[in-house]
Amino acid sequence: MRLVTFGCTLAVAILTSLPATAFDQSMAATAYAPDQLGGSEITPVDRGQDLAIECGCIAAPGADISVVMALDPVQGETPTGYQKVLLTDETVGGNAVHVRVPDMPDLVNHTVTLKIYVTSATGTTACTAGHLRIV
User: Fold this and answer.
1) Is 123 helix (H, G, I), strand (E, B) or coil?
2) Which of 64, 80, 126, 132 has the largest CB neighbor count within 10 A?
């Protein structure tokens, strides 16, 4: 009985000593469906928010994955001086790529289209992952 109590106490101590950021991607990520899976509406997101984007082509082993936010030409949105942003801090897990919405003040109140590019030995495939409105 002492061994079980000690094991439980040790497990709790280890879990509480882990930094909160260790859980950010899996627990705080917003699941996001690409256009092909019905994600055609514009989803509002915050700067710094984690997204989990699912595309079937992501699971190619050893593939190079790039996530791009292209600014949509929406009337009334102020020009930013650029048309696309390459997201560089992505993590792949299964058929999903996890990214963080950039904390760029210029993107506030702008609509973007997410595009996933997967380059593998068989070539490059693209997945349009829908539209976001950064609030």
Assistant:
1) strand
2) 132
